[in-house]
């Protein structure tokens, strides 16, 4: 199988070169070993898409063990807890709507763009073209 991402350097900064699209993207580092790790991770992700979420969760647990367990209900609760009382009450009313049922009990790390699309569509604030 052809390697998708290649490492290249421009002046002092390393870049990722996508052999499929021909695009270059800065890796924002001048450290060659760090750049190699990033390229290796991108190539692994491209060749093993089925395990990407599991690997990402393992990394996230290392930074915040609760992150992989948090649901949108937690985010909603925190969102409603701030600001003045009138704002808090308005937010609480809005969040109780059925549109948010699509994501309310979904884990943050398992949320897809389609989930947000469903919330917007059900809430009436978005019309599909």
Q: Overview of this structure, please?
A:
With 129 residues, the protein is of the alpha+beta class. The chain is 47% helix and 12% strand. It contains five helices and three strands. Strands 1-2-3 form a three-stranded antiparallel beta sheet, with helices on one face. Helix 3 packs antiparallel against helix 4. The longest helix has 16 residues. The mean pLDDT is 86.
Gyration radius (Cα, Å) is 20 Å
List the uncertain runs.
none
Structural class: alpha+beta
User: How many β-strands, per DSSP?
Assistant: 3
Helix content: 40-55%
Tally of separate helices:
5
Give the DSSP E fraction (strand runs of 2 or more residues): 5-15%
Strand order of the largest sheet: 1-2-3
Distance between the termini: 38 Å
Largest pleated sheet: 3 strands, antiparallel
Any idea what the shape is? Answer: elongated
Sketch the topology as an H/E string, one letter per element.
EEEHHHHH
Chain-averaged pLDDT: 86
């Amino acid at each position: 199988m052809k390697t998708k991402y290649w490492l290249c350097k421009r002046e002092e900064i390393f870049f990722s070169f996508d052999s499929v699209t021909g695009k270059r993207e800065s890796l924002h580092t001048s450290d060659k070993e760090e750049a190699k790790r990033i390229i290796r991770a991108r190539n692994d992700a491209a060749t093993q898409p089925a395990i990407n979420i599991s690997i990402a969760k393992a990394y996230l647990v290392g930074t915040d063990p609760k992150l992989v367990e948090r649901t949108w209900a937690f985010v909603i609760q925190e969102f409603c807890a701030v600001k003045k009382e009138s704002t808090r009450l308005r937010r609480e009313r809005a969040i109780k709507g059925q549109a948010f049922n699509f994501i309310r009990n979904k884990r943050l790390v398992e949320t897809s763009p389609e989930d947000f699309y469903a919330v917007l569509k059900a809430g009436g604030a978005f019309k599909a073209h």
